[in-house]
Amino acid sequence: MSLRTSGIIYRCNITMKDIRHLDLNLLKALDALLDDRNVTRAAARLGVTQPAMSGMLTRLRDTFEDPLFVRAQRGIEPTERALALAIPLKQVLGEVETLLQPPVFDPATATQQFTIASTDYALRAIVLPFVARIKRLAPHIRVALVLANDTQLLTQLERGVIDLALVSPEYTCQDLHARKLFDEHYVCVLRQDHPLIKCQQDLTLERFCELDHALVSYSGGGFRGSTDEALEKMGRSRRVTVSVKSFLIMPDVLRASDMVSMLPSRLVTDMTGLAVFEPPIAITGFTNMAAWHERTHRDPAQRWLRQLLFDICLDLHAQCEAGRVEQTGTPDTVI
Questions:
Q1: List of residues 6+ apart from 39 with CB closer than 8 A
Q2: Checking CA distances to 293, which of 42, 91, 115, 327 falls within 20 to 30 Å?
Q3: CA 83: distance to chain centroid?
Q4: What pLDDT is stored for residue 21 in this prediction?
Q5: Residue 49: count of CB within 10 angstroms of its CB
Q6: Cα separation of 136 and 52, whole Å?
Q7: Model confidence over 267-325: pLDDT tens digits?
Q8: How many angstroms separate the CA atoms of 263 and 250, rounded?
Q9: What residues in the chain have per-residue pLDDT under 70?
Q10: Which domains are assigned to the chain?
């Protein structure tokens, strides 16, 4: 058997005798060491002592005839041979785990752990109601929520670091399964007692441009967005005086000031202290996607989790559409 990585081919010289004597726990130890890059943390994950983990590493080195890991400033770093084993190892362990799983997934008694990666926007708009329903239907399941890392998304899904990612389409790829969850649109948000509202004034384009604006810059420090591009095409401009890196802090920024911001509609649904208007300018929205790896595509628990997510998004979409139909459509309508 050969493994290929970075243009180098490694041949595994494990004899049939070695395979017969290779303990599955050794493969789980190697997987934990590759994930944690730290002997102590890997031992804690498997529930063994550090000396026991060190002993398993010694046996692994003998089996694969390679050091596998070398000491580094903060733990250990894998050799090229170890890196070559990482993805095939995940696949083998995943297949073994599937063999040991019951054929039918019962959420009421399940004890699995799921790790969901998400943007900060999706955490508020989708994941909170999603987790609430998970805990109602599967009370013993554990859910870890982490922020999506766009540059490492594919690797994390391949290695099983995360099970499901909620991202925009540009961060999915042909190596992943993906499904559209919904399309989002932007609304104009101010604090509930903003002077504009107290004076019962319409949010015209003129007044929109005169207000102080705040925007979200994921890269950090940006003061320009798609709203500015749309305004320029109309010969207009606005004044952006505050830039934040997270959508989650923006509602508090608006509550504490007379600024206005263009935010995704689902982010501010049912938020207190805020007034929401249809914007006086058309801004292109965005699409939210769910992405997962082939490694978990047929797993019964993972399929249940994804279907629950799809059902939640359908329900939320229906609620949003119903809410929009009830509005009069005037720019000064508070949603």
A1: 33, 50, 53, 54, 57, 75, 76
A2: 42
A3: 25
A4: 63
A5: 12
A6: 39
A7: 998 889 999 999 999 899 999 999 999 989 989 999 999 999 999 998 887 776 666 54
A8: 9
A9: 1-21, 101-103, 320-335
A10: 2-100 (1.10.10.10), 113-180+288-323 (3.40.190.10), 186-284 (3.40.190.10)
